[in-house]
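Running this now, will post back.
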Amino acid sequence: MPPAEPIPPPPVEQQVTGVKRVAFVGVGCVFVGVAYVGAVTPGLPTVPWVLLASYFFSRSSPRLQAWLWYSPYFGRLIRDWHHHRGMRVSSKVTAVTMMTLACTASIVFAGLPDWLRVVIGVCGATGFTVVVFVVPTVPGERRV
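Update: finished.
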């Protein structure tokens, strides 16, 4: 196994101060919490919340930004988005699989009205299309 590449430090952004800083830290913490819920809840995305938390931390708390940047759970997602503006194949496969399972389970087992089943199906198809065809794939990862 080749040695792990060193992880570059997070980018430095213009810091806000005062009440705005406190608000940015609070909002960033809320988004991290939602991201953790999304990591274990089918159908709730994780990546957008992590990216939003990173945005708010980068402008309010270099310490929290570094914590998120080097996080074993979310760090790679943030670094891939920052450096490549995309997701790895493995992350895309996980996202598409979880969306498909959640939407299918909701449509088949939830006993919802037909119009709501259609809405869930359309939302799932839209999410699938965005992840697969719109979000760029990070180069360099071996495709299986």
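The CA atoms of residues 23 and 60 lie 9 Å apart. More later if anyone needs it.
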